[in-house]
Specification:
The protein is mostly helical. 73% of the residues lie in helices and 0% in strands.
Length: 97
């Protein structure tokens, strides 16, 4: 009913989803100690891939109410993008060994 609001939410969601996805690779490599770094990065990658697998299934929730998929696809990336702001700065710090 409101194409402008739908378009704005879709663009914001797409932007924050891209930011969250790229941030998980960059930040997880700095977050985990060297011993478990590959496992930690792999876990972050797996979580992102599982979310990609579940995404088409969320579209099926449209049969219950047409706003449910839009609410999920609009709010989840925005929350993920906002949570990236809470990550501590790692510039100039030594990586954990």
């Amino acid at each position: 009913d409101q194409p402008v609001a739908t378009t704005v939410l879709a663009i914001i969601g797409k932007f924050t989803a891209s930011a969250s996805f790229s941030t998980s690779y960059v930040y997880s490599a700095e977050l985990f100690p060297t011993v478990v770094r590959q496992t930690g990065v792999g876990l972050c990658s797996m979580s992102a891939r599982v979310a990609g697998i579940i995404a088409p299934l969320i579209r099926l929730l449209d049969q219950y109410h047409r706003a449910i998929p839009m609410a999920i696809f609009g709010s989840a990336p925005v929350v993920g993008g906002l949570l990236c702001v809470l990550l501590p700065e790692t510039l100039g710090t030594d990586l954990a060994d």
